[in-house]
Amino acid sequence: MTHEFSHGLSHGFSQDRLARIVPTLAARYIDTGAIPGALVMVWRRGALALLDMAGHIDLARAMPVRADALYRIYSMTKPIASVALLMLLEEGRIALDDPVARYIPAFAGLGVFAGGKDGDFVTTAPARPMLVIDLLRHTSGLTYGIHGRTAIDAAYRRRGVGAPSTGGGLGAMIAQLAALPLEFSPGAQWNYSVATDVVGWLVETISGMRFGEFLHTRILGPLAMDDTGFFVPPAKLERLSTCYQVQDGKLAVQDDARASSYAVPPNLESGGAGLVGTAGDYMRFCCMLLNGGELEGTRLLSPKTVALMTMNHLPGGRLMTDMMPVTGMFNEAGYSGVGFGLGVSVTVDVAATRLPGTKGEFAWGGAASTAFFIDPKEDMAVVFMTQVLGAPERVRLRRDLRTLVYGAMTRTFTTDTAFAKGTAT
């Protein structure tokens, strides 16, 4: 187990309480076999307050977690893709209330599922067109095959909508979507979906650059996120974590780092789930958002655009749990009191979360149990990495992480006058 703490300027944490975060998570989740390893980074007031890790990135080879390990971040790709589109918004090249069909004409005729079966669906006209904002906040009417709830979900699975192996890439995925009904009229529900992959296609269409090229040229390169991309080159494969899944209550290999599908570029560069990267890289992205769109002299977004991104944009200020088609439906938050912004969840009602936290905290996670959250009022960002797809303990682990991090605070910058003025040492 490795511990690293910053020294000098106090960040309003108890070092003893910070030091217990990873050992506590290890006892509950690594020692019990729920996850293979864990890495936690905590950044506050301009410096690293904690880097700690335990367990392994590959159990069979007994390879311990290392600070530069590579992780499949899955849906933590979504905030990065959303920032890409917001950069184009700042350039006046797209607007949130634009109809998506302005950029994807094939979407103009999309109907809403009303019955029938695959190949013979019955549809009705939507109450209004799908807007760009619907893609960013998951109110588009699109879905994911993983939900396994409706006939449309099943059609997505049969066609492999959004699969990395899709011949023709994002353009082919758009053609698949144009041939299928929406699950609901845009704006009527919150439904986690391939919408952020469509965001990636919009970035391609508007910028004239391949989506991955845009990310590397405009975001990953400028932020020095040098280990983040849609595949892992040969020289870096030794740092790639093996990904696991739970089978019969035990961890089983889902993607072996020694023969990983991420060793070659995908056909489809997924803005919703495609990136691989390190905790350190993702923390740089978080710090850019925490700093109002700028990091070390490189500005990606205006502070006003970051503020817009991290507001609750659900219609009527509603919560995700209020707008889901069914109670308990899959999402990366897992508890109430949370709305959704432009690519991130947003804490709206701290009491309803039943967790310590701050109104305005924004966050998201990935399918392999990775997670991040950013608290602008406390000037703090937290990144958590592991690699287990669909871990049953995923939501509880994230709740524990928040509780332990906030429980390590000795001062809150939102309420303590001395710290708010930066006078404490």
Explain the layout of strands and helices.
Blueprint: E1 2-5, H1 15-19, H2 21-30, E2 37-44, E3 47-58, E4 63-64, E5 71-72, H3 77-90, E6 112-117, E7 120-124, H4 132-137, H5 151-159, H6 169-178, H7 195-207, H8 211-220, E8 243-247, E9 250-255, E10 276-277, H9 279-290, E11 294-295, E12 298-299, H10 303-309, H11 320-323, E13 338-340, E14 345-347, H12 350-353, E15 362-365, E16 371-375, E17 380-385, E18 388-389, H13 394-407, H14 417-420
Parallel strand pairs: 8-18
Antiparallel strand pairs: 1-3, 2-3, 2-17, 3-4, 5-10, 6-7, 8-9, 11-12, 13-14, 14-15, 15-16, 16-17
| Overall geometric form | globular
- Low-confidence sequence ranges: 1-9, 416-425
The share of residues in extended strands comes to: 15-25%
Structural class: alpha+beta
Written description of the protein model:
This protein is an alpha+beta fold and 425 residues long. 29% of the residues lie in helices and 19% in strands. The strands form 5 sheets. Strands 1, 2, 3, 4, 13, 14, 15, 16 and 17 form a 9-stranded antiparallel beta sheet that branches. Strands 9-8-18 form a 3-stranded mixed beta sheet, with no helix packed on it. α3 runs parallel beside α7, α3 (77-90) packs across α8 (211-220) and α6 (169-178) packs across α7 (195-207). The chain is globular, with a radius of gyration of 21 Å.
